[in-house]
Amino acid sequence: MIIISVVIFFMTKGPDASLTFIISAFSILSILGIIFAILSKQWFSITIGVLGNGIILVFAGFLLLAKGIGG
């Protein structure tokens, strides 16, 4: 899910990027990644999955905050 989020970021960047699409894609993929990591029974996968997807979820939250401030 982390790799897909990075690919979506590079595909949608630019002056005419839809910030709503980017925020929703990052949020959905991060939540799915955290769920799949927790369903995994390996501690390494849980740790890396939750940390990696958590960072992307925080990034999406900051984008949502910036969109709210910027209008």
UniProtKB/TrEMBL annotation:
Keywords, alphabetical: Membrane, Transmembrane, Transmembrane helix
Sequence intervals crossing the membrane: 21-40, 46-66
Domain of life: Bacteria
Protein name: Uncharacterized protein
